[in-house]
Design a protein that fits this description.
The N and C termini lie far apart (91 Å). The chain has 495 residues and is mainly alpha-helical. The chain has 19 helices and 13 strands. A three-stranded antiparallel beta sheet has the order 5-7-6, covered by helices on one side. Helix content is 37%, strand content 7%.
Length: 495
């Protein structure tokens, strides 16, 4: 009678017969005396959905025990970015920047990493419990405000956290503006105590009508701004209807047909969630600024110009002073326009393949696997003429090639930084240093995008090659500018 937007979603849906009390506590009291003082409590524990969708729920918490274990640091000789500490100095990610684990760990690993609040949050029972998942505070313990590990950072912010959990969906106003229990400026150590679960079922499935949906505010804002130009549009349209709740307090995007490219893009994108500075004048950008909850939806070739237009950068490099962007995990932008994307393949077909449950029924695994570890289920279903060995060989071949280009891009960025330092010491003119610094800014985005993107180029090998070779070329150009200036100065001194 009151919640018309809920009624519209629920009617004639798969969940039409479900009573509101299944997902909301204290409904009787609210119906007897409607009002804010008797507002029902929404059950956000994904176990509520799991009571019916048992296979999907249990598979979400499956531990895959990946080869090499957890906490695989990117900045090691065998990691994705061996020169990370040099190329990202002095940014907080240099303290610890790991390969991701499964979704069940996304909150736990965020809180436990050395760059988050000085390592204040640790696994109960120590190393033997690293495979444990579940409720955040059943797994982790708070060592207290005075606890700080050496060689750790104090990073962490509410915008990042609310992207990794569904627990804050009713306490976070659209885009993190003030008005909810938590907002972009909230104290991070207070927000974490309200986080008990990772991203849950309600992130991608509307509980009222069972339709596919998105709830991530910055994604909705980016698509709503210009639907015809976003990377998910087909024929200038996106199957996304925006529904507003409580006069715009929060919004969701509901779809008629599943589009897991959009659903996964709630997290698997480049985004900005932290403070920084303005490109134009160096002025600080704080959490009160809407730019600290922003999705560009642009790929590696477009991002530098996008952030210049946005007038934002994350940090300055410790040696060159270049204005650098810290890239996140841009899988959605990478995949857009790829061979698989053009063929109509969606994320879930590769990362959530069909399996047979213990009850004998087929279901989509919600463990979100790496296809290379389940080639038969993820790849051969679409390529029945190929063997598992052949498809795995093809994946590894692409990744080998892209990793090679990543290493070369890193090498030349390192050369640019070293040459800049030498040129600075030898008195090269500031105007020349400015030219080299601009090349550093260009080369960095084109390289670091691929250390953040988690497919090692497989999602779009053509884009990876173009971007990384342009990074190499930009670094080489910067080195040449500096070497030419130093040579000219040396020849002038001989006269």
């Amino acid at each position: 009678m009151c919640h018309t937007e809920v009624k519209a979603l629920k009617e004639a849906s798969k969940h039409a017969a479900l009573a509101c009390s299944v997902c909301h506590e204290k409904t009787k009291e609210h119906l007897a005396n409607p009002g804010p003082d008797t507002r029902p409590v929404t059950k956000l524990d994904p176990a509520v959905c799991g009571s019916c969708h048992k296979n999907q729920y249990s598979s979400f918490f499956d531990v895959h025990y990946p080869e090499g274990g957890a906490r695989k640091e990117k900045g090691t000789p065998v990691g994705r970015s061996p020169m990370q500490d040099k190329l990202l100095a002095p940014y907080g990610f240099t303290f610890e920047h790991n390969e991701p684990r499964g979704h069940a760990y996304m909150v736990i690993d965020q809180f436990a990493v050395d760059r988050f609040q000085g390592g204040r949050y640790q696994f109960k029972g120590g190393w033997k419990n690293y495979a444990k998942n579940g409720k955040t505070w059943d797994v982790l313990e708070d060592k207290g405000e005075s606890y700080k590990l050496t060689e750790s950072a104090m990073a962490g912010n509410p915008t990042c956290i609310q992207c990794k959990t569904s627990d804050l969906v009713l306490k976070w106003k659209y885009l993190g503006e003030k008005g909810g229990k938590w907002d972009r400026t909230s104290k991070v150590t207070e927000v974490v105590k309200d986080v008990h679960n990772p991203v849950g079922c309600i992130e991608c499935h509307d509980p009222h009508g069972a339709k596919p949906r998105v709830i991530r505010d910055a994604l909705i804002a980016a698509i709503d701004k210009d639907p015809a130009k976003n990377i998910f549009a087909k024929n200038g349209k996106t199957d996304l209807k925006v529904v507003s709740f409580r006069d715009g307090f929060r919004k969701i995007g509901v779809m008629e047909q599943t589009d897991s490219r959009l659903m996964c893009a709630q997290c698997h994108v480049e985004y900005n969630c932290g403070p920084g500075s303005q490109w134009s004048n160096g002025a600080k950008v704080g959490f009160n600024d809407i730019r600290t909850n922003h999705f560009p939806l642009q790929n590696a070739l477009q991002l530098l110009q996008h952030y210049k237009d946005l007038d934002f950068f994350d940090f300055k490099h410790a040696v060159t002073g270049a204005r650098l962007i810290k890239l996140q995990h841009p899988e959605a932008e990478t995949y857009a326009g790829s061979v698989h994307d053009k063929a109509g393949v969606q994320c879930h077909q590769c990362h959530m393949p069909k399996l047979k449950g213990k009850d004998g029924k087929m279901f989509s695994t919600h463990g979100v696997v790496k296809p290379i570890n389940m080639v038969k289920e993820s790849c051969v279903t679409c390529h029945p003429g190929d063997s598992v060995a052949k498809k795995k060989y093809e994946i590894q071949t692409i990744q080998n090639y892209v990793k090679g280009k990543m290493r070369k891009a890193e090498y030349w960025l390192g050369q640019l930084i070293d040459t800049y330092k030498l040129a600075q010491v030898t008195g090269v003119a500031p105007s020349v240093l400015d030219q080299a610094r601009a090349k550093h800014e260009e080369a960095h985005v084109l390289w670091e995008y691929w250390t953040a993107e988690n497919s090692d180029g497989f999602h779009n090998p053509d884009l990876a090659r173009e971007s990384l070779t342009k990074s190499i070329a930009a670094s080489k150009a910067g080195v040449k500018i500096l070497n030419d200036a130093m040579l000219a100065a040396k020849q002038e001194n001989k006269k």
